[in-house]
Amino acid sequence: MDPSPKRDNGSPDTSVGAPPSARRNTTFFLSFIICFILWLIFSGRFDAFHITLGLISSAIVSFLSGDLLFTASRPKGILRMWVRLAWYIPWLLYQVFLANLQVMYLTFHPRLIDKIDPQIIEFESRLKGDYSRTTFANSITLTPGTITVNVTVLGRFSVHCINTKAGEPLPGEMEKRIAEVFRE
Amino acid sequence: MINWLSAILVIGGLIFFFGGSIGIIRFPDFYSRLHPAGKLDTAGQLFTMSGIALYIAQDASLHTFLTAAKIVLIVIFIYITSPTATHAIIDAGVRAGLKPWTKEGQS
């Protein structure tokens, strides 16, 4: 009588217990590859001695801190996510360039004080994950005219805008594109 | 030809850096000064670094390619760290209780 309820309680733990070791291997392997590629680029020597050193130190680093780099619970989708992120970056660079020209225009404008109207605006974001919010906050800061002041746990963004025109498009298209990247 | 292109890129980047420096002086308060300081720099270093990378990579060999790859990595790291640092500075200002400059408060 007694063992059967115990087994019912115990079985979910064992089924959940299997994936973490596989996940740990995946994160170890991915961070090992990244560390080793960075080693090859930074050292620039391809003799056996330096490559062996690189293999050993990348293995040590990814063993100790491999779970810091990939904290996502879905390691399967992570490569596709990076590919989508790579597609997002050219658009971001284009926006950064356009917006930089605006700040340049403001900087060299003779009546600078009339042109600007700094204020802190707040809005709710529908992004949920840590990575997506960080990407969104950093993208806001990179596009001139706006700096992210704070992001609360509930996803409330405070943004410092240089004038009302800079703050108008937020959250807008940028949030849509980031939500597309992170599939949220 | 590539020399000219990289020179144009470096000069364009320097113009952005110059604008950033002028902006730090001309904007009215702490928060608005961070706008040119934190962002014209990222555009400036993007142009300058890509100009230098182009200049180095024009004679194609493995080592010049590796040097160009290092420069690209520098650009990527600055694009991650610069907004984070700007955010940390502006957040420190808000926590310390500094009121932002506004047009109404001034006039």
Characterise this structure.
- The complex is a heterodimer of chains A (about 180) and B (about 110).
- Chain A is mainly alpha-helical and about 180 residues long.
- Chain A has two domains: about 5-70; about 80-180, no CATH class.
- Helix content of chain A is about 70%, strand content about 10%.
- Chain A has seven helices and three strands, in the order H-H-H-H-E-H-E-E-H-H.
- A three-stranded antiparallel beta sheet of chain A has the order 1-3-2.
- In chain A, strand 2 and strand 3 form a beta hairpin.
- In chain A, helix 1 (about 5-45) crosses helix 2, helix 3 (about 80-105) runs antiparallel to helix 7 (about 170-180) and helix 5 packs antiparallel against helix 7 (about 170-180).
- Chain A is elongated.
- Chain A starts with a helix and ends with a helix.
- Mean pLDDT of chain A is about 75; it is low at about 1-20.
- Chain B has one domain (about 1-100).
- Chain B has helices at about 1-25, 30-55, 60-95, 105.
- Chain B is built from four helices and no strands.
- Chain B starts with a helix and ends with a helix.
- Chain B has about 110 residues and is mostly helical.
- The longest helix of chain B has about 35 residues, at about 60-95.
